[in-house]
Amino acid sequence: MKLLITLVLIGFCSPLLQAQVKHKTKHSTSAGTLYFYWGYNRSYYTQSNIRFVGPDYDFRLKNVAAQDRPDAFRASLYFNPSTITVPQYNARLGYYFRDKWAISFGVDHLKYVMNDNNEVLIDGFIGQDADTNWSGNYTDEPVTTDRDLFHYENTNGCNFLRVELTRSFDIYEIGRNRQLALTGHLGVSTGPTLTFNDLNFGQVHTFATPSLSGYGFGLNGGLRLEFFKHFFIQMNANLGFIHLTHVRTRPDDRNSWARQAFGYSEYNAAAGFLLYLRPKNGCDSCPHW
């Protein structure tokens, strides 16, 4: 009889004990997580056609090649608060508005520099008063640029100010409390471009002429290695398209501008942190992506 009563009590209490254990389990999702990162990039550009318009000239240079301009690593440059924005940098602030989905805003500070001695085709006209070196009418005629006579770049920034929608997912984690975790990220982005243009043409060299000059689109992927749930390093790769519809080339003349479109690839490394502002079940440091 005692054995029968014991078995009945065990059968009755087991569901209650299991429910209590389940209730105490804390499993947080990523919703409500804020993150920030800062890093540095390298970028590569497709050839493009650039149209230049101004007083007494309207011409295109076709098949223009360009590259970025990375700064050599120096601790006094990359870790000095007064100079960290000089190299090609990336900054991004994001928020997980629902589980695994984040919205973020940031800047990709790219540098676009026309290669020296570009072998290009020129099409259009340049008046004698605009430039004594290239004056004339052209129809897809080959020329080679000379940096001392003609040069175009956006080294104070072809700044892609992009909004990104990101989907995150777990890949691997180590430790009972997620002391080390590897996560993946895929995203799409768009936004305007802010350029600071340098142009040497017609015996006039102007620097850092600012303009909100166009827009871009991007596809983005990354791997994030998280440490102790609050810190991470991240590697990103981006492919995209930038259309600069109206780049101001002279600070004192709004009628002087350039236009171009090009594809790009960008690779960057960054370090950042995670803050859990609104975690589920009161769990302040245990997200799962």
Per-chain topology:
Blueprint: H1 2-24, E1 28-29, E2 33-45, E3 48-54, E4 57-64, E5 66-67, H2 75-78, E6 89-98, E7 101-114, E8 119-126, E9 136-144, E10 151-174, E11 180-201, E12 204-227, E13 231-248, E14 257-276, E15 287-288
Parallel strand pairs: 1-15
Antiparallel strand pairs: 2-6, 2-14, 3-4, 3-14, 4-8, 5-7, 6-7, 7-10, 8-9, 10-11, 11-12, 12-13, 13-14
Largest sheet, strands/sense/barrel: 8 strands, antiparallel, barrel
How many helices in DSSP terms? Answer: 2
Radius of gyration: 27 Å
Low-confidence stretches: 1-26
Q: Give the spatial strand order of the biggest sheet.
A: 2-6-7-10-11-12-13-14
Count the strands?
15
Based on Cα principal axes, name the global outline: elongated
Tell me, rounded to a whole number, the average pLDDT.
88
Which fold name is given in CATH as the topology? Porin
Helix content: under 10%
| Strand percentage | over 45%
Task: Explain this structure.
The protein has helices at residues 2-24, 75-78, and strands spanning 28-29, 33-45, 48-54, 57-64, 66-67, 89-98, 101-114, 119-126, 136-144, 151-174, 180-201, 204-227, 231-248, 257-276, 287-288. It starts with a helix and ends with a strand. The longest helix is centred in the first third of the chain and has 23 residues, at 2-24. By secondary structure, it is mostly beta strands. It has a single domain (30-288), classed as Porin.
